[in-house]
Design brief:
- By secondary structure, the chain is an alpha/beta fold.
- The chain contains 4 helices and 7 strands.
- The strands form 2 sheets. The protein has a 4-stranded mixed sheet.
- The chain is elongated and about 55 Å long.
- The relative contact order is 0.14.
């Protein structure tokens, strides 16, 4: 068993995890996605706790293994586990993540407050191509569970929206 010769800070661990990309949205790291919910750098073996975007995600093992490998590349030997009781929401997406989603061609989800969004607010989705809000929902089912397909009347392009999750 390998032993630690250096203690790593939570910031160093988080920096290493920035290299781990979401398998479905490769322009975003698991840090930008808000999946890193806890880092215990003071433990004998550091512990990283991740919150999955949804419990049934088929990529959980891939994400965990990618996190372990990214940490090892920096000489950090840590336990990486998922907290299935912690609920992920799209409010965990960083502002930079939302910008990257739009550049990637996905309309980012709106911020969800404690107040319920009106249907009009949910339908004012900005097109990632031309930035018009003259859009409509075509189908709630996109290429993955977290996406919907919309259409922009201004640029006449179909696009995917990252669905808001409360």
């Amino acid at each position: 068993m390998e032993t630690h010769t250096k203690n790593f800070t939570a910031e160093e661990i988080r920096s290493a995890l920035e290299q781990v990309k979401d398998p479905e949205i490769p322009v975003l790291s698991i840090v930008e996605m808000g999946m890193v919910s806890k880092i215990d750098a003071d433990a004998e073996v550091p512990v990283v706790v991740l919150t999955p975007t949804f419990v049934g995600c088929p990529a959980l093992n891939l994400i965990r293994q990618s996190a372990v490998e990214a940490l090892k590349e920096r000489g950090i030997h840590a336990e990486v586990k998922f907290d299935l009781s912690d609920k992920w929401t799209t409010n965990r997406l960083s502002p930079q993540a939302k910008e990257k989603l739009e550049k990637f061609g996905l309309a980012p989800p709106p911020y969800l407050s404690d107040e319920e969004l009106t249907e009009e607010q949910l339908n004012r989705v900005r097109c990632p191509h031309c930035h018009s809000t003259d859009t409509t929902l075509r189908t709630a089912f996109g290429s993955t569970l977290c996406r919907a397909i919309r259409f922009c009347f201004t640029c006449r392009q179909a696009f995917e929206q990252f669905k808001p999750v409360a």
